[in-house]
Amino acid sequence: RTTVASADIGLIERALENIIQNATRYTAAGGAITVSLTLLPESVRVCVSDTGCGIEERDLPYVFDRFYKAHRENPSGGAGLGLAITKRILELHGSTIRAESTPNVGTIISFELALAHF
């Protein structure tokens, strides 16, 4: 049986690129980035986890805001737009994006996409 999510493939590709680029930017050489999918009763959960530097608790509520840059010793040089764009893409799909993180351990960014019903 084939399961299909209801989504604009181009926009979801852009969202995943933004999340994975962020993970790459903050994960040192030798670290790991994992993309996983979990089938739920009415949706599929997409998770991107990394073993990067993590995000401080005080920064977590703001990582999806435009132009926000977390307080870090090694700034990434990014414009602070990638995750804000991703958040908007997911809102257009009726989804929300979540971030969980532990400094010096890593970060998990996740969202869900509704399943298509034929």
Description of the structure:
With 118 residues, the chain is α+β, with helices and mostly antiparallel strands. Helices cover 25% and strands 25% of the residues. Helix 1 (9-26) runs antiparallel to helix 2 (82-92). It has helices at residues 9-26, 82-92, and strands spanning 33-39, 43-50, 97-102, 106-114. The mean pLDDT is 90. A four-stranded antiparallel beta sheet has the order 1-2-4-3.
The SS-based structural class is alpha+beta
Spatial shape? globular
Q: Tell me what portion of residues adopts beta-strand conformation.
A: 25-35%
Question: Percentage of helical residues?
Answer: 10-25%
Q: Main sheet?
A: 4 strands, antiparallel
Mean pLDDT: 90
| Order of H and E elements | HEEHEE
Q: In total, how many beta strands?
A: 4
Major β-sheet strand ordering: 1-2-4-3
Identify low-pLDDT runs. none
Distance between the termini: 13 Å
Task: Tell me the number of helical segments per DSSP (H or I, 4 or more residues long).
Answer: 2
Quick structural summary:
By secondary structure, the chain is an alpha+beta fold. It has 2 helices and 4 strands; from the N terminus they run αββαββ.
Provide tags for this entry.
globular; 118 residues; 25% helix; alpha+beta
Secondary structure blueprint with pairings:
Layout: H1 9-26, E1 33-39, E2 43-50, H2 82-92, E3 97-102, E4 106-114
Antiparallel strand pairs: 1-2, 2-4, 3-4
Helix pairs in contact: 1-2
